[in-house]
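F.,

This is the one I mentioned.
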């Protein structure tokens, strides 16, 4: 915005002070544009962004100098607004509303929203807002251009730049929030949603609730005695399957209940309905790997369950991040390269302060690997003896030993499955060595903090 507004203001000021002379006005606008470009380059912004404004001002200056009409300095902006208005209108007519085209890849779902007529309708309404924004600019500025009112045109362009853009963004936010595409985070910040409210990622909405018969008998069901709280892509599914093959260990209706992070508002009976009736097993449990990441979960668990135990699988965070990324690519939920996804993580997560939002669920590749800060929150509320921390690499190498450790931790006799079938194991290309080294250095201080916390070196920094 500054790349067009500030040079335009400089043009108007110089034009007025210079007695309506065109050459000083063009020079002033170009000098401001060059200054902004230098600032962008100093901030290490991409060449595209750094030079885009300068090129635009250069085109405007060229047209005005060729025609000798000062008002033609603003002609490219008018044409651009007309083009944007037409593009949004055509996208709506074609049922490819541009707001959806922009927002879909941003939240990692691509064009999946087009399969849902309700969501197409919401994005269409939001796109109409931008048709209006550009047409309002044209309605005010075009008559001034035709009348040759250079100063008034320059002031109108500046006044209708950032302010009307902000209004457009706010109205878009309201439409998306009303339509369910944006929710509120814990502090009221916007959080993009994918699908229906309360929907688990990748699961049909109608499958999230346990059967009515289970809900009716929730008071007869056994509260979980253990939770596998993390980490994702660290072997949690395999370990949970092996554990629940034990005759004394009962499984939840689904492995990842996500009660304490996504569905806490559905109540304790809804949660208990996921577990077997009392008396069938010595212990029952579930495995929701995002529990370790969400800062709200430890307190909620403490308020809900008594004497619960926690199993934590920790994988080299570099390998965990890449495995998570490859899974997203395989499911069609990630379009960026691994390097770009890592570089964009902070920007993506800034879209929501709700750790249960799809943004955080999908794109926290690095954040999920900061194990020490996550475990510290749990250790503040629960005694250390309630935690069994297993190194994933040890589990992969010797699953029987890790399983015996977990079974002993839960107070049952050793029981090994006939075969250790790996779950959710896939093959993918190796990570770029330079990227691996950068991530290793990035995680190194966090890993040392973890080793100090647990009194154990996991050997990930060699």
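My design for it:
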């Amino acid at each position: 915005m500054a790349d067009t507004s500030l040079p335009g203001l400089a043009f108007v000021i110089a034009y007025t002070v210079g007695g309506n002379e065109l050459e000083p006005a063009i020079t002033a606008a170009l000098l401001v544009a060059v200054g902004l470009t230098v600032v962008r380059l100093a901030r290490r912004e991409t060449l595209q962004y750094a030079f885009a404004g300068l090129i635009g001002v250069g085109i405007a200056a060229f047209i005005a100098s060729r025609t000798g009409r000062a008002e033609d300095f603003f002609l490219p902006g008018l044409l651009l607004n007309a083009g944007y208005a037409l593009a949004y209108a055509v996208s709506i007519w074609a049922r490819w509303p541009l707001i959806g085209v922009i927002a879909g890849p941003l939240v990692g779902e691509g064009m999946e929203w087009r399969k849902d007529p309700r969501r197409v309708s919401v994005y269409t309404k939001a796109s109409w807002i931008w048709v209006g924004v550009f047409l309002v600019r044209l309605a005010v500025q075009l008559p001034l251009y035709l009348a040759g009112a250079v100063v008034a045109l320059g002031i109108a362009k500046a006044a209708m730049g950032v302010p009307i853009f902000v209004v457009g963004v706010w109205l878009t936010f309201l439409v998306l929030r009303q339509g369910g595409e944006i929710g509120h985070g814990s502090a009221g910040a916007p959080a993009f949603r994918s699908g229906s409210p309360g929907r688990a990622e990748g699961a049909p909405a109608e499958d999230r609730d346990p059967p009515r018969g289970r809900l009716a008998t929730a008071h007869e069901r056994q509260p979980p005695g253990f939770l596998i709280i993390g980490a994702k892509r660290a072997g949690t599914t395999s370990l949970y399957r092996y554990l629940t093959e034990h005759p004394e260990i009962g499984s939840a209706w689904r492995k990842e209940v996500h009660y304490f992070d996504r569905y806490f508002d559905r109540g304790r009976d809804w949660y208990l309905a996921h577990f077997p009736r009392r008396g069938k097993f010595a212990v029952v449990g579930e495995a929701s790997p995002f529990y370790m990441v969400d800062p709200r979960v430890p307190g909620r668990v403490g308020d809900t369950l008594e004497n619960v135990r926690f199993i934590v699988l920790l994988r080299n965070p570099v390998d965990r991040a890449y495995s998570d990324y490859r899974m997203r690519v395989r499911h069609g939920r990630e379009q960026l390269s691994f390097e770009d996804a890592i570089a964009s993580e902070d920007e993506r997560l800034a879209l929501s302060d709700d750790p249960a939002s799809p943004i955080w669920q999908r794109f926290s590749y690095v954040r999920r690997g900061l194990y020490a800060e996550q475990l510290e929150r749990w250790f503040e509320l629960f005694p250390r003896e309630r935690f069994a921390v297993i190194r994933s690499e040890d589990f992969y190498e010797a699953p029987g030993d890790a399983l015996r450790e977990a079974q002993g931790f839960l107070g049952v006799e050793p029981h090994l499955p006939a075969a250790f079938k790996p779950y959710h194991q896939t093959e993918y290309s190796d990570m770029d060595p330079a990227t691996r080294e950068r991530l290793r250095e990035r995680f190194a201080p966090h890993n040392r903090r973890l080793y100090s916390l647990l009194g154990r070196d996991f050997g990930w920094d060699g």
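The mean pLDDT is 86.

Talk soon.
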